[in-house]
Design goal:
Length: 202
């Protein structure tokens, strides 16, 4: 199954593999605290975050297989759910440097074009195994660009926010939730399961 943090890390991996974006760009998959623990990070920065997530209600949770133990005995069911997420990439640069936020936004679009459903529609790389594609991400579509025109608090910082729509599937195994095999006729698990991290990092 794929988790949202892994999708964000896959986007970072795609950017790192690209020769279009400058090597000096710092990527983040958490919202940076410029006045706290992240105060030493300097632009240019591209910050990926999840804006919203919705379950695709046009499709039901589907039973796609059965689980078996080492002896081949059926011990549970495997279900699939479909989700749509909105991911934002905030691009930050500082006025007067060689890094222009408009150019960085165009670079980002070009770097992710190969994974866009309206582009080459390739699979994102798996951040844990970059030579392999990231499974269960169905599509990515780069959407709108919003420039930040409010410079009152940070007059030297220039930002642009790119929005991307992401469709992905989430696999659920009933044994992972302690659901007994003979009771797993139907399940309706909470959407929050897709927010859980599949890594040991905080």
């Amino acid at each position: 199954m794929v988790q949202l943090d892994t999708i964000l890390e896959g986007m970072v991996q795609a950017c790192n593999e690209s020769t279009i974006l400058p090597d000096e760009v710092t990527y983040s998959t958490v919202v940076l605290d410029s006045g706290g623990q992240h105060s030493n990070i300097r632009p240019p920065i591209i910050e990926f975050s999840v804006d919203s997530i919705d379950r695709d209600t046009s499709r039901n949770t589907e039973k796609v297989g059965v689980e078996t133990n080492s002896n081949g005995t059926e011990v549970g069911y495997i279900y699939t759910q479909w989700f749509d997420a909105v991911v934002t990439a905030e691009i930050l640069s500082v006025a007067g440097t060689k890094f222009n936020h408009r150019e960085l936004e165009q670079n980002l679009r070009q770097a992710l074009y190969r994974y866009d459903i309206h582009g080459l529609n390739e699979q994102l790389p798996d951040p844990n195994n970059p030579s392999s594609p990231l499974r269960d991400v169905n599509w990515i579509s780069l959407d709108s660009i919003q420039p930040d025109r409010d410079f009152a608090l940070s007059p030297s910082v220039r930002t642009r926010t790119a929005t991307m729509d992401v469709g992905f599937t989430h696999e659920i195994r009933t044994s992972d939730y302690g659901i007994k095999y003979d009771e797993a006729e139907e399940i309706d698990l909470d959407i929050s399961v897709v927010f859980e991290s599949d890594s040991d990092d905080d």
